[in-house]
């Protein structure tokens, strides 16, 4: 499997998990970007992805009260 295919799969898996986790209406117009992909010395992969939306209400759904849904 190529690295590009693995990156695309990671985007889909994270988006799917987000939709499962949020339990609220998340519009399909949210932009989802792969920002960084780094293979670490121990063989693991660090993946940074961003979800971008222009609507404050959607941001609140994604982040949660006081950041409770992130980190």
UniProtKB/TrEMBL annotation:
**UniProt keyword Transcription present:** no
Q: Which UniProt keywords apply?
A: RNA-binding
- Signal sequence, start to end: none
Q: Give the record's GO biological process terms.
A: ribosomal small subunit assembly
SUPFAM superfamilies, from UniProt? Prokaryotic type KH domain (KH-domain type II)
Q: Which InterPro entries match?
A: GTPase_Era-like, KH_dom-like_a/b, KH_dom_type_2, KH_sf_prok-type
What domain of life?
A: Eukaryota
* Pfam families, per database record: KH_2
**What is this protein's name?**
GTP-binding protein ERG-like
Q: Which organism is it from?
A: Trifolium pratense
């Amino acid at each position: 499997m190529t690295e590009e295919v693995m990156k695309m799969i990671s985007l889909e898996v994270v988006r799917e998990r987000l939709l499962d986790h949020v339990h609220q209406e998340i519009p399909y117009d949210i932009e989802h970007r792969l920002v960084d992909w780094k293979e670490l010395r121990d063989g693991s992969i660090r993946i940074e992805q961003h979800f971008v939306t222009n609507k404050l209400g959607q941001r609140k759904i994604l982040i949660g009260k006081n950041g409770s849904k992130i980190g």
